[in-house]
Amino acid sequence: MNIQQDELDDFYDAIRRNGFRTSDFEISDEDESIQNPNGTYFLKIKVTVKRKSNNITKDYQGGHGTSWGVNFETDLQNGFFGSP
Known about the structure:
- This protein has 84 residues and is α+β, with helices and mostly antiparallel strands.
- The chain has one domain (5-76).
- It has helices spanning 5-17, 68-77; strands at residues 25-31, 34-35, 41-42, 45-51, 56-62.
- It has a 3-stranded antiparallel sheet with strand order 1-4-5, with helices on one face. It has a two-stranded antiparallel sheet with strand order 2-3.
- Strand 4 and strand 5 form a beta hairpin.
- Helix 1 (5-17) runs parallel beside helix 2 (68-77).
- The longest helix has 13 residues, at 5-17.
């Protein structure tokens, strides 16, 4: 998994803070990094979050300098994943 431990901690804290059960969510990631022919490397991670009880899934852009965790919590607060 490419997601850092502090990001996972924040993810589960956001779920609890918003009244959801952590066991109702799955998280996975996929490395979509790009290496250009000139040798430069662009770290790009696709983070997928799924709420198991209603099968709602959303992808977030992860990697260096991204704020997918903040975007996830905003989605929780705005009801994207349903109510707790």
